[in-house]
């Protein structure tokens, strides 16, 4: 972490912040606390300006071209699974999905709208890489389901999607401000990609219509078709990601979630 000492000086205490990339750190000194990250996307500045992530304090470029960002390190906690039912979650996700500023920035960064065909193609290619593993019946059935439905889930509206709306990415600060953090995997895609994962993971089905109205739309059958398709595809993508990293216990947990979702939706028949 020599680069951190070079930027901050030696009177700061720096500790790793965890995360999948291993490039995030907490830094503190007398009266000051920061969250630092190496090579965050320029997208972070727009997210900060929109109040979606904690405030961006500064950005610095190192001699090797790496970019370091510093954000306010806020006291707070991640949401509990049952709190995903709160109208504020629906309102913040709606704000993100309807932001033309976020969409313009991601498009300028070279992101093109993700189509269901591309999602399926990536899943198939990853499964070939994982061919040494014996795929479970759930994975086989899930892939068949996605292939059979791929032509039915195209949608002409594309928005900025977070792509991992897990409850531990929602931060409630001690001053009662809600944020959605960890934007490394953001894409331009069908809003059903975010909605499917969130609703199938956290919201009782009897409350879906009400939750979606709080989000700002009147649901229809085509939306529900797209939501289950993306929920299954994301579940598969996370299983593959953990398998490729050798994290088989985590992959097994994700597989159990996929199995429960597929049984509930009669996909295992």
TrEMBL record:
Q: What domain of life does the UniProt record list for this protein's source?
A: Bacteria
Q: Does the keyword Transferase apply?
A: yes
Q: InterPro entries, from UniProt? A: Aminoglycoside_PTrfase (IPR002575), CcrZ_PhaseVar_Mediator (IPR052077), Kinase-like_dom_sf (IPR011009)
* GO-annotated molecular function: transferase activity
Pfam families for this protein: APH
Q: Does the keyword Iron-sulfur apply?
A: no
Q: Which organism is it from?
A: Halobacillus locisalis
Q: Which UniProt keywords apply?
A: Transferase
Q: Where is the Aminoglycoside phosphotransferase domain?
A: 17-218
Name listed for the protein in its UniProt record = Phosphotransferase family protein
């Amino acid at each position: 972490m020599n680069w951190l000492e070079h930027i901050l000086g030696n009177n700061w205490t720096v500790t790793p912040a965890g995360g999948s990339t291993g490039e995030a750190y907490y830094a503190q000194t007398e009266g000051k606390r920061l969250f630092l990250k190496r090579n965050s996307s320029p997208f972070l500045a727009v997210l900060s300006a929109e109040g979606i992530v904690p405030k961006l304090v500064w950005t610095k470029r190192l001699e090797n071209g790496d970019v370091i960002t510093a954000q306010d390190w806020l006291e707070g906690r991640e949401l509990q699974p049952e709190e995903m039912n709160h109208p504020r979650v629906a309102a913040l996700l709606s704000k993100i999905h309807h932001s033309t500023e976020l969409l313009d920035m991601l498009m300028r960064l070279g992101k093109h709208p993700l189509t269901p065909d591309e999602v399926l193609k990536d899943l198939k290619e990853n499964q070939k890489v994982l061919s040494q593993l014996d795929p479970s019946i759930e994975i086989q059935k899930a892939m068949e389901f996605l292939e059979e439905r791929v032509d039915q889930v195209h949608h002409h509206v594309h928005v900025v999607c977070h792509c991992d709306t897990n409850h531990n990415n929602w931060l409630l600060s001690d001053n009662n401000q809600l944020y959605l953090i960890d934007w490394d995997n953001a894409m331009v895609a069908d809003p059903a990609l975010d909605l499917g994962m969130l609703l199938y993971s956290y919201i009782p089905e009897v409350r879906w219509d009400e939750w979606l109205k709080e989000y700002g739309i009147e649901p229809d059958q085509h939306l529900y078709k797209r939501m289950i398709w993306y929920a299954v595809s994301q579940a598969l993508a996370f299983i593959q990601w953990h398998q490729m990293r050798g994290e088989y216990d985590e992959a097994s947990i994700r597989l159990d979630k996929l199995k429960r979702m597929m049984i509930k939706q009669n996909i295992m028949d």
